[in-house]
Structure formats: C-alpha cells, structure tokens
Amino acid sequence: MLLYETIAAAEAALGRNLTAAEALWFRYSAQMPDYLLYSHNLIFLFIVFTLVPLPLALLELRLPSTLVPYKLQPKVQLPPASFFKCYKDVMRAFLLVVGPLQLFSYPSIKFVGIRTGLPLPSAAEMAAQLVVYFLVEDYGNYWIHRLLHGRWGYEKIHRVHHEFTAPMGFAAPYAHWAEVLILGIPSFVGPAIAPGHMITFWLWIILRQVEAIETHSGYDFPLSPTKYIPFYGGAEYHDYHHYVGGQSQSNFASVFTYCDYIYGTDKGYRYRKAHLAKLKEQWATGGQNGEANGWNQNKKSE
C-alpha cells in the first residue's frame, strides 16, 4: 500500500512527474495491502508451472516427429499418463508446500526490506539485482543438490526428482516436499542480501522457474537465446545429470556451470561430450558406425 493518496501527492513527494510505469503502479497498488501484493507470487507460479511447459508437452504428445532432431534422449517417449501425473503431483506440492511457504514467508520479506512504494527501480538496478539473485541461488543450490546425492539424501528425498531420467518441463518442480522446502531457501538469500522492489522480486521468482523448466525440457534448440548467456548450463547440461541418475556425481549446478568446473564435478560430462564429438567426427569421415546422438546410449556411471 502506497503512502500517497493521489498521484499529485506522490509527484509532490518525489519532486517530479511519475513515469508511465509509476503511474500504472500507483493505480494498481495504492490501496492494496503489501501482503496481498506479495501473494501475487502464488498466481505467477501457478501460471508459470501450467503454461510454460505446455507447448512442448502438446507437441511431444501430438507431433513428436517435429521435435525428434532436438530431443536429447530421442528413444524415450513418455506416455500422456506421465505428463498428467507429473502435473497433478506438482500442483499438489504447490498447494500443500509452495503456497504455504510463500504465504508464511511474508514477514521475512518485510524484514529484509523489499519495498512496494515509489519510485520504481530503473532497468539497470533490476538487472543488477537479478544477476546477484541468480548467482547466489546457483551457488547455494549447487551445494544442497550435491549433498542430496549422498546416499541418505538421495534415497530418502532426492530420488523422487530423479524418477524422470529423461526430464520434461513439468518435472522441473517435481520433487519430494522436503526438497521443495530446502531448495526454496537459496531463492530468498539473494533478495535478503540485495533487497529491491516487489516488482523485481516478482520477476526473480518468474525467471527462476522459467529457467528451471527450460533446463528440464529435454530438448536442446540451437537458436535458444539462453545459449548467449555466459556460463549458462541449459537443457543439455542438466539432462545429462538426469540421464546418469542416482549415481551421478556430475552437473549439480542449477543455472550456471562455474561451480561444477571449479569443484571438478563436470568431468564425466566433459568426457562424454568429447567422446561423442570424436565419434561424430569419425562418422562424418565414414570411419565407423556407433552410438546415436543423445545421452541414451550405453549408459554409464560417472
């Protein structure tokens, strides 16, 4: 809820005219409690979880041949029942775990100083804060994920997420309820370190989930704009982690690749990539026949 009753009062306090975006924000949020504004996250998460994975899912179910050239594990064809079950389980976790976590975490959001008032942040400020959020979350997620691949953590918690050895977009948030809670912690650390505007926080929540869906999509599209992000892992990078499965000690990072490189947990992936590149070169020269493209041939433990 804003401190000003009218746009004129807001402009007088700021000493300038409101921008078009600020005027729109004023009209929308002036009389709305901050708690209700924060609760918009639930709407955004529901929309993202439902709509972002949907186009690829429909294409895979209706026109799978159009996607085969880009599918990372082309021999794995999931039945419609798997998509429906995955979405149903994700929505159950959304209602029972994610929703309450969002609602009860509001006091911490206010405590760290995430604001709802005017002025709105500049694009540069928002971009800088989002970079911090992604880097902090990625580092925390790396270590939690790596710990969950210990024997106890995997058998009791993380194995649920690995039920999909060939992941799909709907499976990005598919996990044990305890994992949903644990991995939610790093998402709040960045905003606590560099608190910004509620709009920046909304955008962070949306972008992080869209990124998770993209890396779990199971497809590697050559023209994807994410390929131009430095050190970005992407679908191919994370798909390998799911392909290897429970015994995987490779590619723990959620967004970027720098942690795996620094701590040496991408060696299996890099070896596999080099091996496939060598085979492709041999095929191109007519030297030998061998493995098909994708991770789904001659599964190994790295």
UniProtKB/TrEMBL annotation:
<dbReference type="Pfam" id="PF04116">
    <property type="entry name" value="FA_hydroxylase"/>
</dbReference>
<keyword id="KW-0812">Transmembrane</keyword>
<keyword id="KW-0456">Lyase</keyword>
<dbReference type="GO" id="GO:0005506">
    <property type="term" value="F:iron ion binding"/>
</dbReference>
<dbReference type="GO" id="GO:0016491">
    <property type="term" value="F:oxidoreductase activity"/>
</dbReference>
<feature type="domain" description="Fatty acid hydroxylase">
    <location>
        <begin position="131"/>
        <end position="265"/>
    </location>
</feature>
<dbReference type="GO" id="GO:0008610">
    <property type="term" value="P:lipid biosynthetic process"/>
</dbReference>
<dbReference type="GO" id="GO:0071771">
    <property type="term" value="F:aldehyde oxygenase (deformylating) activity"/>
</dbReference>
<keyword id="KW-1133">Transmembrane helix</keyword>
<dbReference type="InterPro" id="IPR006694">
    <property type="entry name" value="Fatty_acid_hydroxylase"/>
</dbReference>
<keyword id="KW-0472">Membrane</keyword>
<dbReference type="GO" id="GO:0005789">
    <property type="term" value="C:endoplasmic reticulum membrane"/>
</dbReference>
<keyword id="KW-0256">Endoplasmic reticulum</keyword>
<feature type="transmembrane region" description="Helical">
    <location>
        <begin position="42"/>
        <end position="61"/>
    </location>
</feature>
<protein>
    <recommendedName>
        <fullName>aldehyde oxygenase (deformylating)</fullName>
        <ecNumber>4.1.99.5</ecNumber>
    </recommendedName>
</protein>
<dbReference type="InterPro" id="IPR050307">
    <property type="entry name" value="Sterol_Desaturase_Related"/>
</dbReference>
<comment type="similarity">
    <text>Belongs to the sterol desaturase family.</text>
</comment>
